[in-house]
Amino acid sequence: MTDTSQKGVEAAEQLNDMAAAGPEQNAVSQAGSLNPGPLHGLRVVDMTSLGMGPLAAQILGDYGADVIKLEPITGDVFRHVLPQRSPGMSHAFIQFNRNKRSVALDLKTPDGMAVMRRLLAGTDVLLSNLRPAAMKALGLGYEAMRAIRPDLIFCAAYGYSERGPYAGRPAADDTIQAMSGLAGLQRMATGAPQFVPSVVADKAVGQAIVSAVMGAVIHRMKTGQGQAIEVPMFETMVAFVMPEHVAGRTFVPPLGGTGYGRIMNANRRPFCTKDGLLAVMPYTTPQWLRFFRLIGREDLATDPGMADPMERNRRFEELYGIVDAAMPGRTTAEWIDALLREDILFGKVNSPDELIEDPHLAELEMFPLVRHPSEGMLRLIGFPITFSATPNTLRQLPPRLGQHTRELLAEIGFSQAEIDGMHARKAALCD
């Protein structure tokens, strides 16, 4: 075990000791024992499932918010994918749900709605990825919630904007990759429509949710006003995918078709070295000239056309061919040494397994090991963003379903007898 991993284990053991000491020693309610983060004091109710909303809520939790993950009695769907060590604690759920407390309620029961109304009264931000019709059917439309908490920030994230003809359609990462042009761009570049092998739509839209919520939080700080936010996946991903690919149709009349030529080129890929693969990308004029000299092409280094960025842009296919032809002449290690020396952009082609062992990421504790009370040793994802005054901290390990129901209900004023009754009536799951 590395030193950095040992730090993670020690931090997790501290959290476990605090949780065992009782609610009064809980890492959220006693956030002063760990850095509270820039959003300390903000309560977020996370009514989302799968990837998009949970990622956004996790980031807000990383920033110090008290995130209540409000789940149905059956739990977030992501709890049930494979692999998992014990039921309801899948790998995917674990990686999208740290720094949250899990409360499990049946909102279709009178008890569940009584809890929800009381919880709303103390909620700053509510996240939902239920379609609007489903929220209204529960009695949780924005106007109904605002009657309980006038300055509530309500962020609704779902497939398609309610302002357009696709309103109400179901959506998921795959369907949005298709609809937003991402799979179509793959077809333009390679001849085959493909999905990016990552839930990139979920994760990109999750980041947009965080940005939108923070804008609304700042507005409320200035004015005292809450508001409703709509973050539709389709439109958000179109805005993510298209800036460089509107291309010639930026201009009216068009100066060409869509698709950024250099990026769509089939030769834009990692190149084969003598013993492996390496992404190499001279970018600025000085970098290209240094690269030409590095490969012994003084003719290109002194070619006036190659010193002109617009001319190079016209000849990108030729340039990719030059790089491709040169790369097999050296090993990957030899190329890395040379490219570092010449300050030319490159990137090693890493597999997910290699990333976990990467020395730079290990130094930054990007894959800390933690000991979970029910799941044993886990490898989590670390914090990529650094705050000098309010660093991110791991305050809550990914929760079991309903792990904090009893604690939260007591916090908002329900008696133990009332809580026991809700549990017996299956309106609440108290772990």
Walk me through this protein's architecture.
- The chain is an alpha/beta fold.
- It has 2 domains: 3-242 and 366-429, Crotonobetainyl-coa:carnitine coa-transferase, domain 1 (Rossmann fold); 271-348, formyl-coa transferase, domain 3, CATH 3.30.1540.
- The chain has 20 helices and 12 strands.
- The chain has helices at 3-20, 52-62, 91-96, 110-121, 132-137, 142-148, 173-179, 182-190, 200-223, 233-241, 261-264, 285-294, 298-301, 309-314, 316-326, 332-342, 352-357, 359-363, 405-411, 416-424, and strands spanning 43-47, 66-71, 101-105, 125-128, 153-158, 227-232, 271-272, 277-280, 346-348, 369-372, 376-379, 428-429.
- Residues 1-12 and 15-32 have low confidence and may be disordered.
Beta-strand percent range: 5-15%
**What characteristic shape results from the CA principal axes?**
elongated
Question: SS-based structural class?
Answer: alpha/beta
How would a crystallographer describe the biggest sheet? Answer: 7 strands, mixed
Give unreliable regions as ranges: 1-12, 15-32
By DSSP (H or I, 4+ residues per run), the number of helices equals: 20
Oligomer: single chain
Number of domains: 2
Alpha carbon gap, first and last residue:
32 Å
In the CATH hierarchy, the third-tier topology of the largest domain is known as Rossmann fold
CATH class of the largest domain: Alpha Beta
